[in-house]
Amino acid sequence: MFSDERAGDYLSNQYKYVEYFTNWRHNGLIEKKALELHEKYNFKYIIATSESDIERAAQLREYLNIDGQNVESAIAFRNKVVMKDILLKAGIRVPKYKKVENPLDLVGFVKENGYPIILKPINGAGAEETFLIQNENSLEDALKNTGFREFEVEEFIEGDVYHIDGIWDGNDFLFVVASKYINSLINFRDDSIIGSFILPEGNLSEQLIRYTKEVLIALPTNSTIGFHCELFLTPKKEIVLCEIASRVGGAKVVKMIESMYGFNLQEKTLHSQINKYFDIQKTIKNKRNYEIVGFLLLLSREGFLVDIPRKLPSKKIIEYNLNLKNNRQYNSPKRVIDSIASVVLYGDNEEEFLKEIKEIKNYFENMTLWKEG
Amino acid sequence: MFSDERAGDYLSNQYKYVEYFTNWRHNGLIEKKALELHEKYNFKYIIATSESDIERAAQLREYLNIDGQNVESAIAFRNKVVMKDILLKAGIRVPKYKKVENPLDLVGFVKENGYPIILKPINGAGAEETFLIQNENSLEDALKNTGFREFEVEEFIEGDVYHIDGIWDGNDFLFVVASKYINSLINFRDDSIIGSFILPEGNLSEQLIRYTKEVLIALPTNSTIGFHCELFLTPKKEIVLCEIASRVGGAKVVKMIESMYGFNLQEKTLHSQINKYFDIQKTIKNKRNYEIVGFLLLLSREGFLVDIPRKLPSKKIIEYNLNLKNNRQYNSPKRVIDSIASVVLYGDNEEEFLKEIKEIKNYFENMTLWKEG
């Protein structure tokens, strides 16, 4: 079962039964159809790879009494307030936070904590509808727009942002790797790129992984999951949770890891989930192919795309993909994955790698032509 | 503070300070402004007369530590699941019901209880977005449209619908009267009218009022409230709750009661709320002016309104109001109060009164001209 946005992907060649649905995120006919198909096919597993399907898949599993992540676990990884309630109780450092169910909750949080603060949908994904509130003006914008849906507000944590990706079997990592974002996700609308790169092995990487392990031990998991954990490192070198999801990282995380280690993290996660005798350690090497591998997303903006470079002037490119629309009409990015192009590349050391990224960014900005409207 | 839909009402002549807001139901700037105005005016009371403001007013009261209905009480009267949880525990007959947070909750309820069922927003008002689900087709329509917002589903109760209106001081009625709807609210979209009339004093009226008293005793109330309670009377003469609200009845309920008793229920409710020494019994007579008083709403439909009668051929009319739009372009009614005209009228007995209503309905339908589009 797929969103109709994927109707052009010829998926029926790859699956026994394919059906497309409009309005995927809010269409309850998907659940109804899943129950009907279960009558016929008797599903053994229900797999969700997208953040917004995590809870729905868990609800279906419980309804049909099927193994895999249950609703309690799904909610702990999806609901940013439940998540932090659990971690706070486990003594893990999280930002000051509060559930926002009405405007007074938000105004009260500002009164107690001042600016800046971050306001997020309580179960959003991809930094969609995430507001950085820095002053009374942006507070009023948020109050006007967020209505009475459930949000979470938290203090703004200064520092670099890292992401830890891997597979967790409920007790330990089956695989884990730490990476660093090249800019802050919260400000992604202000820059033309986002991206990250895998950290060299060493102290910092180990610290981040140790913190992530504490988080995963504290949260309820009744099955093997892929995970994507985002952490702040403050100027005082304190690690603070941003958030954690029970699915494989999006954007080009999978391709980045594949380039570095030679295996597909999404595929290995699925195998670990559907076969309890699957021994991932025997199928992958933890040996790295490069010193550094990273990716860049080149973000869309509002307007008509006139021209975009077909090649980039760098010898370190592993993959360069264009994400072009037929009508070439784009909007400013709503989610971090709304990109017009992506690059996966390697480097020999961090300094040289970051220089390379800057050059690619400048080249791309200069060579990409937009027309207003 | 008012919705900008009322900007034409010259309210600034009637109040010391008037401000209008767009997007009233979802605009958090209203709360922020209320806090700022409190700094200046030091509010003694916060009054909400509209169903959708009940919780917001209670939240503001608690935030500002002001007397009046608190959040616990507001939620019990607003959230149809919390309401029924409390009443069920108190041993009061309510329909079978279930909270719907995702499509499986709804499908599961159908599997257990079959059709027909009623699906309502968990805190809706005016029968907005209320679905009567009679078969798999209408189930699929609902699943497609209701998404993952919170709903309540309940069994469909066969029978006549009554409404009990009055003022409750937390322990007893300050005023109470029972009325009967002339048709079922749930089907209001299928008929061209809705309406109700005050029941004659007697057995049925007393039974309905006694049931309502049990409901009001069971629900938390920390202050004097106006209330509007809707009850089913089944063919087996069993009384079952439809729902209850902690505000004065809408449509023409206030005008109907005023015609019958000579006082304004909204005004007396306010006085009871803001003055604990106010003795309503001394300011009203419970003596009735007529045998029967009732009201009719003549509902809008989709199209351009060409002509509508300016007078009705009946000698029993107390009030006939047109609710005309400047552009005369109407939609089919979304809420029960989306009417193009209203009538308040009296009668000498029920039979004659219902005949009169039927004649008015026919006359109105014949004399009102619509053009498509």
Automatic annotation (TrEMBL), chains A, B:
Molecular function as annotated in GO: ATP binding; ligase activity; metal ion binding
Record has ATP-binding as a keyword: yes
Chain ranges of the ATP-grasp domain: 84-274
Entry annotated with the keyword Nucleotide-binding: yes
InterPro entries: ATP-dep_AA_Ligase, ATP-grasp, ATP-grasp_PylC-type, ATP_grasp_subdomain_1
Domain of life the protein comes from: Bacteria
Keywords, alphabetical: ATP-binding, Ligase, Nucleotide-binding
PANTHER family membership: ATP-GRASP ENZYME FSQD (PTHR43585:SF2), FUMIPYRROLE BIOSYNTHESIS PROTEIN C (PTHR43585)
Name the UniProt record assigns to this protein: ATP-grasp domain-containing protein
Annotated source species: Lysinibacillus halotolerans
Species lineage: Bacteria, Bacillati, Bacillota, Bacilli, Bacillales
